[in-house]
What does this fold into?
Amino acid sequence: MPSPLPTIDAAEIRTATTDDIADLVAIEERCFSADKISRRQFRYLLTKARAVTLLFQDSGRMEGYATIFLNAKASLARVYSIAVLPDRRGKGIARRLALAGESLARAKGITRIRLEIRSDNTPSIALFRSLGYRPIKELKAYYEDGADGWRYEKNLSAADVGWRRASTHSGTP
It folds into this structure.
């Protein structure tokens, strides 16, 4: 019996360009029912905003993205949006995008990174907590559909030790 062909990891993370807008909008449509980023907003994010959009693609197929605002003057980055196609979730793509965004922020001298997560998005909450993010503020009726959220933050300049014990009080995801 012949041996199986070796698997080749053809996955890569790269910076998005305006040529990627149609694919970004397609991912947005498949991933979100509300609060979607429009074609026009993506164009602005890619050309004028102090932001970077990272794309995850495997064998030429775009499977996810992360848009991160980078404000070196404030030493603060913000994960504006992160999305992975539904059929590719649970494969470490969001983790790789988040870590790549953190790396870019560190390279610019940024010391903190924040993001907002819907209170009912338990997979994202688990992911970002596992990466060292801690909840810093509850956001009532934050989303377009009235859903609550949480703001999370991670210290990029030092080990953020002990945050899990300090943030396990009742009601905090």
About this structure: The radius of gyration is 17 Å. The chain has one domain: 11-166. Strands lie at 11-15, 51-58, 61-71, 76-84, 112-118, 134-139, 149-155. The first helix runs from residue 21 to 31.
